[in-house]
Design a protein that fits this description.
single chain, 268 residues, Rossmann fold, eight-stranded mixed β-sheet, 11 helices, 8 strands
Amino acid sequence: MRFLRANGVVLHVHDSGGDRPAMVFANSLGTDFRIWDAVAPAFAATHRVIRYDKRGHGLSQATPAPYSLADHVGDLAALLDALTVKSAVIVGLSVGGVIAQGLAAARPDLAQAVVLSNTAHKIGTTESWNARIDTVSAHGVGHIADTVMKLWFTPEFHANRPDDLAGCRNMLSRTPLDGYLGTCAALRDADLSVSTAALKIPALCIGGDQDGSTPPDLVRSMAALIKGAELVVIPGAGHIPCVEQPDAVIAAIRRFLNTNDLLPTSQI
């Protein structure tokens, strides 16, 4: 375990180190960096792989809610500065993808390219987020866990991988209340339509064909904003394809890296 204070918050970090090009993985709402366990190691031979628990998630510090997107973006920027990362491929899932978009806009020096998985420039409405905040404030994160699992994973996953489903449910339910509510508020208030449309870096947009949280058409609308963005919709995947279909995620990212000359020359 490694902990590092960045932007005034103690963050839990896993850093493979080395002087290879950096690849950073940012997780979704209600998860920690273990959701990348089946994906991140595939890039260890070519990249310095960095995973971190965002503010209020996993083993990172849960400051009092609410949070803003600027808080999360500032945390990641400060973390990369502290790790002396000059530029990286930023891979973000759901709110992690919103953070990736925000970082690319606010600190373009740090974002060489982005992989935006199951995310969008604007997710949900003020009303839907306020309703979730009210429910979780009254009853706790565990109260919505079964409903969220239906959005995260396909019926096949529910039927065939009950142990993995139970583990993911536990991960969500054990998210600190401040971290969950704070990040809901950040998502509620974030609209990156203008800044994402102005991005000028390579972008891969990934969706799951059965994603109940950020459906493929929403991911497609984000991809349409970014000039030259590639869109991949993964069959048999819900909102967390890095858990449900990791091989497809790895293949899509590898193609993207190759297409955009983002692999070290010796690895091409």
